[in-house]
Amino acid sequence: MADPVSEGSIFIDPFLLTLTLICTIILILGNLYFLAHYSHHADGGFGSSSAVKFVLMLAFVIAECQILMLPMDVINYREGTNIDMFVFW
User: Residue 8's pLDDT is what?
Assistant: First the structure.
């Protein structure tokens, strides 16, 4: 009997993909709220120094995604999907 997930086939679990996208959107919105809420009033509003705030948002998302990658790697291995987690690690 042939293996349902062969080398040439592309199979990505729709639930895993949807969960990953939803978690990423929630992380970005939560970090945006965190950054807006705790910005100093002397900064002249939330829009000043946008480049620094973009770098902070990117750093927050990368740090939080590192925590979420371990369960994703386990689910990916158990389900037999073709997401190459070596690239992420």
Answer: 54
